[in-house]
Amino acid sequence: MNDTYAPAPPSPSSELRAALSEAGLRAAVTEAEVGNQVRIAPLDPSDARQLARLIRTGTKRTLKAARSLKEICEAHRIGLPGLRVRQGRITLGTVQVDDAARLARLLGAVPPTTEQPDADTVRTMLGQAFPQATGGGALSVSVREDTPEILELGSIDARTARRLISTLRF
């Protein structure tokens, strides 16, 4: 029987406090009493600027990939109004069925014999074409029940986004 003790992971507030301290930033970090939230006390302007620089530096590649992906999709007339970076991943968000079908065709999906494929057909097309076009990257695609002309696309990492961008360029 193995009775090894695994210490509890640090709380989110102590993890943030330690990261700010390691970066040389002075900020009081506390866990709020309501809603189990972490709060950062007001920062002086120089610390706020430094924190902003650190965040931008840490997310630079992902932000750049998101911008490039948005630009190339716009060039192909694919509207992704919800494209943004969240928690280090690129969330593609909602897309009209016609735009999603265009994306699927650009990724090599064979369109069905009907002129206007429905949302479920486009979801299947994207589900099959995306991993092949990105070298294995996965993308969750779901049909909105309340608005079947809109698909909800999941998130991808920056590496998959860069492979997608390369595919869409050619």
Explain what the structure shows.
The mean pLDDT is 88. This protein starts with 11 loop residues before the first helix and ends with a helix. It has five helices and six strands. Helix 3 packs parallel to helix 4. The strands form two sheets. It has a four-stranded antiparallel sheet. Strands 1-2 form a two-stranded antiparallel sheet. The chain is elongated, with a radius of gyration of 21 Å. By secondary structure, it is α+β, with helices and mostly antiparallel strands. A hairpin with a 6-residue loop joins strand 1 and strand 2.
Describe the protein's topology.
Blueprint: H1 12-22, E1 29-31, E2 38-40, H2 45-75, E3 84-86, E4 89-96, H3 97-106, H4 119-133, E5 141-143, E6 150-156, H5 158-169
Antiparallel strand pairs: 1-2, 3-4, 4-6, 5-6
